Amino acid sequence: MTDRRRMNGPSGGTAPPFFASSLTSKTASPTQRTRAPDELRKIFLKTGLTPSASGSAYFELEPSTPTAASKSLASKAPALKLTCTVHGPRPLPRSAPFSPQLLLSTRIKFAPFAARYRRGYIPDAGERDLAAHLDTTLRGVLISERWPKSGVDVIITVLEGEEDDPWNKGHLNENERAGGWGMMSILAGCITVASAAIVDAGIDCIDLVTGGVAAIVRQPTAPLQVYLDPCPSDHEEIFAACMIGYLQTRDEITELWTKGDIKASTDGHGANSMGFEPLVDQAMEAAVAARLVLIEAIKESTGMKVQTSRIGHPKNAAS
Amino acid sequence: MSRHKLVKALDLDEELDDFDGGAESDYGEEVGAEDKEQLRLGTAKVRAVLGPEVSITDKEIEDSLWHYYYDVDKTVNYLLGQRTNSQTPKKTKKQNMDAEVKKPDAPFSIADFFSDSPWLNIPEDRRGEILIEPLYPRGKLLGGTSNPDGAPKSKLAALAAARKKKENQRVEDGQNATSSVALLDKLGHKPRQAKSDNALNLSNPKPSSAITEQTVNEQPRKYSRRKSKGLESPQNDQPVKEGFIRSHSLASPDIEKKPEITPTAGPSVFARTIFGAPTVSQQHDIQTSNRYVLAPDTHAEFDFTGPSPDDIVTKAQNTKGPTKKSHKQPPQPSSGDKSVNAVVQGVGDVTIEEHKVRGKTLDVVAEFERSKPKNAANFVVIGHVDAGKSTLMGRLLYDLNVVDQRTLDKYRKEAERIGKASFALAWVLDQGTEERSRGVTIDIAMNKFETESTSFTILDAPGHRDFIPNMIAGASQADFAVLVIDASTGNFESGLKGQTKEHALLVRSMGVQRIVIAVNKLDTVQWSQDRFDEIFQQVSAFLTSAGFLAKNLAFVPCAGLTGDNIVRKVDHPQASWYTGAPLISLLESSEPITRALEKPLRMTVDDIFRGGVQNPLSVSGRLDAGNVQIGDAVVMMPASQTASIKDLEVDSEPAEWAVAGQNVILHLADIEAKYLKSGDVVCAPSAPIPCITSFIVKILAFEHITPMHCEVHKGRLHAPGRITKLVSQLDKASGAAVKGKKPRMIKPGSVARVVVEVDEQVPLEQGGRVILRAGGETIGAGLVE
C-alpha cells in the first residue's frame, strides 16, 4: 500500500554525507559511557505540551555524551525526544459496539527525521510492535471500568530516537530496525511519558507506571556488568536487556520485555553472576528513578493548575 | 480499651478548668502589695499548722488562702482533705490523661480505628468532618493599638494568647497533644506521629522531602498492597539471593529503596523552544552527585546448587587436554572423551565436494602431438573501410567451396533487391541484418576453411573506424594479418591516411609479425603494374617504419569481386606481368606458429551464450596459452569463480581437449551467468591471472600522449582508465630509457613507459598486449610490464 496523498520522501535510507574530518576525528569512534553503571541519563519531563489535547507530555533524555564535545553534526550523540498526547476519554462513535470499559488505543510513530534511517508515514512493524507493548503496559494501570462506552487515544511521536549504532557501515538490516536495543529505552520513555500525559488528562489510574531499562553489557575494559539505562551506542556489546513497566507503590509489573541471551553472558565468566532476576531488579530500579521525575513533573503541573484555577487542594488533584 | 472510649472519658469541664487555672496565673500579677504580705503571713501560719512532714508547695497554700480569703483553718482543712486523696485532683486527672494517651506504643492506624466498622457504614460517633479552613485574613485586634506588647489585653485576647503559647510549648517539647486536643486534631496528628516513629526505627533516615512525598503516596491508598509472596515461595529451599531480598523489601514500605536524587534534567534547546522561557520551577539545581543510594551489587551470593569452582576447573582441564591432542594426532577413536569423538566425527563427515564432471585426465600435449594436426593458422583481414575485405574473403570461401553456389545465388538475389549487388560475396561473412543493410562489417566475422596442408580461420575485421574495438578483439586472436588495400584511384591514398595505417599499426602492436598485402580491385585500374608498384613502395616503406621486417611482407595483386588471383591465378592479359603465386598459396606458406602449450591456461572470453538445452552456459574464444580438456576445473577472472568444463568444442566440432591457438567453445558447469562477461579470462586454478588496477605499459604512441583519460583495450576487454604518469621516454632501437627530464608529453611514433590506472580490476599479466584509445582514436599500443 502506498500513501498517495503525501509527498513521500525516498523510502530507503538517506544517509547524511560523511565528511572526511568527522571520520578521522576522535569523535567518530563509538562514544564511551561516562555515566556510572547505576546512573540514569537525565530526564526532562513536562506535561501540558498540547493545549488542544486532554492530556499531553513531553519527554526528553539528554544525550549520553554532551553535544558540545562533538563538533560535527554527523557525530551527534543520540538523544531521545518524545511527545505524547492523550485524547479522551471520549464517547465511542455510534457505530462502535458497546464496550463496558474504556477502550484504549495506542499509537507510536517515529517522525521521518527521528533517526538516521528515514521512516515513512505509515507505521512499520517495529512501531506497531512498540505500540502493542505500550498498550499492555497502560491497560494494567487504567481503571477502565469507570469509563464505559468511551475510548481514549494515546499517541506518541518520537521526535528523536536513538539508533543501535549510528556508525553502522551504511546498511541497516530489517530486523535490527524492527527491534534493536535502542527500542527498549524508547519504549521505557514512551511508558513514562504516556503515564504523565494520562495523569494530565485526569484519567483514573491505580498507580503511576514508569518504564526502566537495564542491560547486561560488556565494556572493553570492565567485566560483564548490569547497567541501568543503557545507550546502545555507548557499549561495545549488549548481551541482554530488560525493559519493565513498573508500579512502585503496588509493587506490580505491567510490562516486561527481555531480549538477548543471558546464558551466553554468564557462560564466559563462570558462576551465575548475571541472572534474569537481578536484571529485572535493576530495570525496576531504573523505573523507580524515572518515577521520581514523573512525580515531580506532575506536582509542578498540578501546582500551576491550582494556581490558575484556585480550586481544590493540590493533594487531591495530584492523583 | 479502644480509643473512642478514652476519648469519651475526657472531661471537658476539667479541660476548661485547666485553662482557667492558667489564666489565673496571669491575674496573679494584679495582686496588690498588702495582699502579698497577707498571703506570706497566711502561708507561714498554714505551714506551722501542717508541720514539716507534709509536702505542699507554697503556691498551693497561697492558692487555697486566696480562695478562702486568708482563712487559715479552712485552708488547712482543705489541704489535708486533699492529702488523703494523696494528690491534688487536678494533677491526677492530668497525669491519667497523659498515661492513657501515651500508652499505645503502636502507631495509630486508621485501619485499626475502623477495623470493626462495616464498610460504608461507619457509626455516627466515629465520623469526623474534614473542614478546610477558609482563607480569612489573619486575625487582628479590632481598634487595638499598633503596639501589641505594651497595651493591656482584653480577657478574651489574653486567653487566646495563653492557649497559643501553651500549644507552641507542647509542640516544642515534642509531646503529644493531650488535654485540649480535639477529636479531629487527634485523628490528624496521630498517624503523623506514628510515621515519624517509624522513620526513626529504620536505619536509613529519609531526607525530609521524601517524607512529604511518601505521605502523598500512602495516605490516600485505598487498595491493599499486593505482597510479592508468590515470588518468594519457590525460593524457600534455596539460598535467597540478594536481588530477591531487595525486591521483596520493596513490598514493605519503600523508604530505603528511594534514590536520593531525581535524575531530572533541564530542558534542552529544543524543549525550550517548545515551552518558552523556563519557569522558576524548572530551574532545579542539578546535584553533582549522581549516585543513587542503591548501587547494584554485582556480586551475588554463591549458588551452591551448581558445580563448585573447583569442579569447573577440573572439568575444564579434563576436556581441554584431549582436545588439544586431537589437533596434533588426528583420530583417537579409543579416547572416551565425547568432545574428541565429536571432532573426529565432524572431520569424517566433511566431504570435499567433487566435480560433477569427470574428465579422462588425458595428457593433452601428448595427444596433440599424436594427432599430427594440420598446420593451423588464424588470420585477421584488415584494411580501410570499403577496401573489399569481406568480399575478398567471400570470394575465397566461395572458390574453396566452403560456400555453395546456391547460397551465393540467394545472396545475389537479395543483394540485388536492395540495390547492392556487388555486396553479395561480402554477405557470406556479414551475417547481421544491419551489416547487410548498411553494407559495412560491424563485428568480427569468423569463418573456417581448409586447404590440403593447413586449416585456416578467417577473422574478418570491420574497417570502419567506429568499430576499431571490434577489430582489436579480432586482431588479438590472429597469427598473421591480411592487409587489403583498395588500389582504385584516390581510395588507396585515403586508406593510407585512414584505417590502413591504423590497422597496420594495431596488428603490429598486437604482436602480429607477418602480413600479407592484398592489393585489391586492380581490375578497376586495368591491372596497371605502375599502380601496383606505387602501392608496393609506399606501403612497404610505411610497414617497415612501423616495425615489420621486409621479409615478412608479401604483396599480391588481386580482384575480390572477379576472384582473380585469389585461388586461381589471374588469366587476364593485362595482368601477365605478375608471375607470383595467388593469395591462397601465400597464406599456406605461412610457417607454423609455435604454441605455448605447456603454459597455464589462458583464454579470453569472446562471447557468452546458451549452447543448447544440455549446455546452459557456454563461452567461446581462442585459447591464448595452455591446454584444456573435459572435466578440467577453471577459474573465471576477475570474478574469481570456479567452473568446470562439461563439454568442449574445437572449431564447432565436439572434442575432448583443446590446445593453445584453437578456437574453442567451452560448455561450463557449476557457475552462474552473472559472473561472466566477455573479456573475462578463463584460467587454470593453479595459476589464475592477476587482476590489477594499475600497471606500467611500454607503449608506442600513435598520437600525442599526456597524462589523460583513455580506454584500455585487450582483446574483447575494454575498460575506462587513465594515464597517470609518464615514467620515461625510451629509445626506439635499444629500448633503453632516454636520459634527461621526465617527459611531459610523448610525441607520436615514439616509445615510452607510462603508468596506467583503470577504474575496475582487469585481468592482465606481464606480456599482455594492450591498446590505449581516447576519443575514438588509438593513441598508443604496448606491452604490459
TrEMBL record, chain A:
Gene3D superfamilies registered for this protein in UniProt: GHMP Kinase, N-terminal domain
A biological-process GO annotation: rRNA processing
Comp. bias intervals (Polar residues): 21-34
Record's subcellular location: Cytoplasm; Nucleus
Record-level GO cellular component terms: cytoplasmic exosome (RNase complex); nuclear exosome (RNase complex); nucleolus
Keywords (A to Z) from UniProt: Cytoplasm, Exosome, Nucleus, RNA-binding, rRNA processing
Keyword Nucleus attributed: yes
MF GO annotations: RNA binding
Region (Disordered): 1-38
A Pfam match: RNase_PH
Residue stretches making up the Exoribonuclease phosphorolytic domain: 39-203
Family indicated by similarity: Belongs to the RNase PH family.
Name of the protein described by the UniProt record: 3'-5'-exoribonuclease
Species annotation: Alectoria fallacina
UniProtKB/TrEMBL annotation, chain B:
Region called Disordered, residue ranges: 158-245, 302-341
Biased composition (Polar residues): 196-218
Protein's UniProt keywords contain Transmembrane helix: no
Keyword annotations from UniProtKB, A to Z: Cytoplasm, GTP-binding, Hydrolase, Nucleotide-binding, Protein biosynthesis, Translation regulation
Domain of life: Eukaryota
Gene Ontology terms, MF aspect: GTP binding; GTPase activity
Family membership noted in the UniProt record: Belongs to the TRAFAC class translation factor GTPase superfamily. Classic translation factor GTPase family. EF-Tu/EF-1A subfamily.
The protein's name in its UniProt record: Elongation factor 1 alpha-like protein
Naturally occurring in which organism (per UniProt): Alectoria fallacina
Taxon lineage: Eukaryota, Fungi, Dikarya, Ascomycota, Pezizomycotina
